[in-house]
TrEMBL record:
It comes from Nonomuraea mangrovi. This is PLP-dependent aminotransferase family protein. PANTHER family: HTH-TYPE TRANSCRIPTIONAL REGULATORY PROTEIN GABR (PTHR46577). Signal peptide: none annotated. One of its GO terms (molecular function) is transaminase activity. It holds the Pfam family Aminotran_1_2. Keywords: Aminotransferase, DNA-binding, Pyridoxal phosphate, Transcription, Transcription regulation, Transferase. In the C-terminal section; belongs to the class-I pyridoxal-phosphate-dependent aminotransferase family. Residues 20-88 form the HTH gntR-type domain. The lineage of its organism: Bacteria, Bacillati, Actinomycetota, Actinomycetes, Streptosporangiales.
């Protein structure tokens, strides 16, 4: 056995499965090894006879398995050349991560997150390797962020109509780290939050420092924010903080109107509230002519690359007054919550070329949103409003409990997050978040599982 065959056999491991025909088991093992990184895309496969001998199967089994892989886009064979491994186009430039694509049998949509744009990442990583010398020569100690990244983000804000200097930007290891640092610094007694809201925010508030925080919720639905409830919550949180997602709210997808933004700013000033606006979904505007509304005056802004690029790129930031950024940078938790310099270099390369990628992603997300909405429309067992942006539909089930529906769908291989996870008070028992990031066949399976569960 030659080295190539030995490496492939080792990568596949114990690939035979009781009760599974050899062809299907071999093809599945190759797919899993590619996804797991044990087999490299672009790597050449041994000739069929040598591969069959190495695996201890007939050549016919190898030929049939390669045919299945070739038809699925996992293997490319050119006349007179060896077969090479590849990722199928839907996985090579996916919107949904593999865990949410159904490629491995299960569709896990408990996190509404995109997959990485692999070609853009590969190219950016090569450029980083060529340019990293000056950064690698430094001590690597955390600080407010690389000057190049802070300047780039400040220019983006300025270009969008909000004049910003680099010293108004602090880089963190993601949006959650940004919010955790703000909570640790502000140590609020009361926090006003939306209901529903992103569940990780509730966990961070409850665990902020040693202070037991009272959470004052205010309602938001697909049609917008309840400003009367918001005013009551802000009054209860006087002197504390408020957390909002005004742009394509997670999970409802609602977009706050300009007049509502003015009201929120006025209420925050009156009640001396530190207003934190999470903008991680702001770039995912799925309208035909995206036109982001003006930002809420006086708000401290949180941004991130997780929803536009990839959650694994642990880059977030805080945009606020330079005095606040300076105090956050001096906080003991700033270092542990900072982003690695090499990640920041990668973010510089990717964010500098973000617009063409965003155009493609918005178009594909719009197509998938409309497809899922078409599958679910007109069924009296649930209701929803078509969101203008974001990554998910927010369904209100007509009679069924969301936890029971989610459990039934889980038994069919589709995992969703029920509404109570998004509520500070465990309400929203008839709501369900359904991300539309997967490809169309997977969305059809999600719709079928939902119909069966209801």
């Amino acid at each position: 056995m030659q080295a190539g065959e030995e490496r492939l056999v080792a990568a596949l491991g114990q690939w035979r499965r009781p009760g599974v025909v050899l062809v299907a088991a071999l093809a599945a093992a190759v797919r899993e090894a590619v996804l797991d990184g044990r087999l490299r895309t672009g790597g050449r496969l041994p000739a069929e006879r040598r591969l069959a001998a190495a695996l201890g199967v007939s050549r016919g089994t190898v030929v049939a398995a390669l045919t299945e892989l070739r038809e699925g886009g996992w293997v490319r064979t050119r006349q007179g050349s060896a077969s090479t491994l590849r990722l199928p186009p839907p996985l090579a430039e996916p919107i949904a991560p593999v865990s949410a694509s159904g490629a491995m049998g299960v569709i896990d949509l408990r996190r509404a997150v995109p997959a990485a744009p692999q070609e853009a990442f590969h190219a950016a990583m090569l450029r980083v390797c060529e340019q990293a010398g000056p950064v690698l020569a430094e001590d690597g100690e955390p600080g407010p962020g690389l000057a190049s990244l802070r300047s780039l983000i400040a220019r983006r804000y300025t270009g969008q109509g909000l004049a910003t200097l680099p010293e108004q930007i602090l880089i963190t290891s993601g949006a959650r780290a940004a919010f955790a640092l703000l909570c640790a610094y502000l140590r609020p007694r009361v926090a006003a939050v939306e209901s529903p809201t992103f569940f990780d925010v509730l966990s961070l508030l409850r665990g902020a420092g040693s202070t037991a925080i009272t959470v004052a919720p205010f309602g938001v639905g697909s049609q917008g924010w309840d400003l009367d409830q918001l005013a009551d919550a802000f009054a209860a949180a006087r002197g504390g903080l408020a957390y909002l997602t005004p742009d394509f709210h997670n999970p409802t997808g609602a977009l706050m109107t300009v007049s509502a933004r003015r009201t929120v700013a006025e209420l925050a000033a009156r009640e001396r509230i530190t207003l934190i606006a999470d903008e991680t979904l702001r770039e995912l505007d799925l309208r035909a002519d995206p036109a982001p509304p003006p930002r809420i005056g006086g708000a401290v802004l949180i941004g991130s690359a997780s929803k536009t690029l990839w959650g694994g790129l642990r880059i977030g930031w805080v945009r606020g007054p330079a005095s606040l950024i300076g105090r956050l940078g001096a906080h003991p938790l700033c270092g542990p919550l900072s982003a690695a310099p090499t990640q920041q270099l990668l973010a510089v390369e990717l964010l500098a070329g973000l617009e063409p990628l965003l155009v493609r992603r918005r178009a594909e997300l719009r197509r998938r949103r409309d497809h899922l909405a078409g599958l679910l429309a007109g069924d009296e067992r649930w209701h929803f409003a078509l969101p203008q942006g974001g990554l998910a539909l927010w369904l209100r089930l007509s009679g069924a409990r969301a936890d029971e529906v989610a459990a039934a769908m889980g038994r069919e291989g589709v995992s969703l997050t029920p509404g109570p996870r998004f509520a500070a008070d465990a309400t929203l028992i008839h709501h369900l978040r359904v991300p539309y990031t997967p490809a169309l066949p997977a969305l059809e399976r999600v719709a079928a599982a939902l119909a069966a569960a209801c």
